[in-house]
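Summary of Year 1 activities. Much of the first year was spent building the evaluation harness for sequence design. The harness presents a backbone, in tokenized form, and records the residue chosen at every position. We chose the following record to illustrate the format because it has been used consistently in internal testing since the harness was completed.
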């Protein structure tokens, strides 16, 4: 679970940097996609461990 939280923080930082700098807008979009992917991965992993 700690790895998921660390990844979410890293992706959030990348997104903020990407949206703060106009030339790196693509980095912000990739960061958002990675945040969503990490949340989905964490939810699936958590659901599988409860079984």
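For this record, the design step produced the sequence shown next.
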């Amino acid at each position: 679970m700690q790895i998921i939280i660390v990844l979410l923080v890293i992706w959030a930082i990348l997104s903020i940097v990407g949206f703060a700098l106009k030339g790196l807008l693509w980095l912000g979009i990739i960061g958002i996609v990675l945040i969503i992917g990490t949340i989905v991965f964490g939810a699936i992993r958590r659901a599988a461990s409860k079984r």
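The mean pLDDT is 87. Quantitative recovery figures across the full test set are reported in Table 2.
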